[in-house]
Design a protein that fits this description.
About 60% of the residues lie in helices and about 5% in strands. By secondary structure, the protein is mainly alpha-helical. It has one domain.
Length: about 220
């Protein structure tokens, strides 16, 4: 099936298949056994998420269920075996490595925010997007991107769309996203630097006021 074709006639099949896969992957033994397969398919899943054409495709929530499970596998736990001697200590720790590459995470973040910007009143999709954003913003660079005004506007747009629905679960997810933004001092510093730089750039050339010039002359 080509991702360039019009997949709307297959929407029900895609949604049902991806939803079933998302449910099956919740079985941890099954997920561990086929981990490499969903990891390798992340770029294809992202392409399915991008297919909104002004409104979210009907399969996006189901695709995000799969993506959420794959993201939740990062980082993997570390298994440590106590060495019998002081020799070969570097071989005593085994890391179960699993990581989605930075480029795919960044592209996935952009796709998720693209969906967030066009969400209307929906009881499932905003929560699916919020869950994925919680996992993505654990990464510092993506937390900084999330702090941009346009992205925060999209985030709260999703919450407003749930005004007449039960919104407790999405509220909890949004709070976690905001927590990821503010909990790291380096993230806060980076945000402040960006905001200060943007403010000065928007103001144009800085004009020194006479009192400031006077103080500089006196100091010198």
């Amino acid at each position: 099936m080509s991702l360039q074709a019009d997949l709307r006639p297959c929407a029900k099949t895609i949604r049902s298949t991806s939803h079933l896969l998302g449910l099956v992957l919740q079985n941890q033994d099954f997920f561990d056994a086929c981990l490499e397969d969903p990891k390798d398919q992340i770029p294809a899943l992202i392409e399915f998420i991008k297919m909104n054409n002004g409104e979210p495709a009907p399969w996006i929530a189901s695709i995000l269920l799969v993506v959420e499970k794959v993201l939740s596998a990062q980082p993997k736990r570390v298994t440590f075996t106590s060495p019998l001697s002081d020799q070969e200590l570097e071989n005593s720790a085994e890391l179960n490595s699993y990581k989605i590459c930075d480029v795919d995470q960044s592209t996935l973040f952009g796709a998720a925010m693209g969906v967030a910007s066009v969400i209307s009143k929906d009881g499932v999709l905003p929560l699916a997007v919020a869950h994925v954003l919680v996992l993505l913003t654990r990464k510092r660079e993506l937390a900084i991107r999330m702090a941009k005004v346009d992205n925060l506007r999209c985030l709260f747009h999703m919450l407003r769309c749930q005004a007449n629905l039960r919104a407790e679960r999405i509220q909890a997810s949004i709070i976690l996203v905001l927590r990821h933004i503010i909990k790291d001092q380096e993230v806060l510093k980076a945000i402040m630097r960006n905001e200060i730089r943007t403010w000065f750039q928007s103001r144009g050339p800085v004009k020194l006021i006479p009192s400031l010039l006077s103080s500089m002359v006196i100091t010198s």
